[in-house]
Automatic annotation (TrEMBL):
PROSITE patterns associated with the record: RADICAL_SAM
Biochemical pathway: Cofactor biosynthesis; molybdopterin biosynthesis
Family annotation (Pfam families): Radical_SAM
Keywords, ordered alphabetically: Iron, Iron-sulfur, Metal-binding, Molybdenum cofactor biosynthesis, S-adenosyl-L-methionine
Name under which the protein is recorded: Radical SAM core domain-containing protein
GO annotation, biological process: Mo-molybdopterin cofactor biosynthetic process
Organism field: Callosobruchus maculatus
Record carries keyword Iron: yes
Amino acid sequence: MPKEGVKLTEKPHLLTTEEIIKIARLFVKEGVSKIRLTGGEPTVRKDLPDIIFSLKQIEGLKTVAITTNGLVLTKQLVALQKAGLDIINVSLDTLVAEKYEKITRRKGWNRVIMGIDLALQLGYNPVKVNCVVMKDFNEDEIVDFVRFTKDRRVDIRFIEYMPFTGNKWEVDKLIPYKSMLKVIHAVWPDFHPLDNAPNDTSKNERE
């Protein structure tokens, strides 16, 4: 979270529920079978359950997913599941509460973990956790994140630090994918690649 905060989009400029469904129908008509709701943060929309329910009624759409910061999953996830939510990705860049507060500028790490645990209890298997790896911030937690998968049915998705407006990207903060693998293989030499589908955007490995 930038120090100056983030300017929120004014409501008149946001898509309505009906507009989202109309656009989704056009995509599905052209062959899209999976839609992911991201953001920003999708859970700030009060109509999120309605959006998910309406999407699930579209013939030909097989999967509805969300990527969320996880802060309100304990309050919303039951309703989202009833609406038909298929897949959950939670963005979490650290397993240390103090570091979480530093990068997000708010408390809430425990709530995110509770949200992940609730998702598992509700049968989401696996829950996918997105972690952006940055030098001098969380590269020392790569092994801890892998160990996190030993205790919970989660898939950790390590993401290279990428530039976008407002994140003050610096190449010195970049930890390349191969460097992450080297750290993991030093602890678990038997980690090996899994087969990936042609449209996969990630490279999968397991012990």
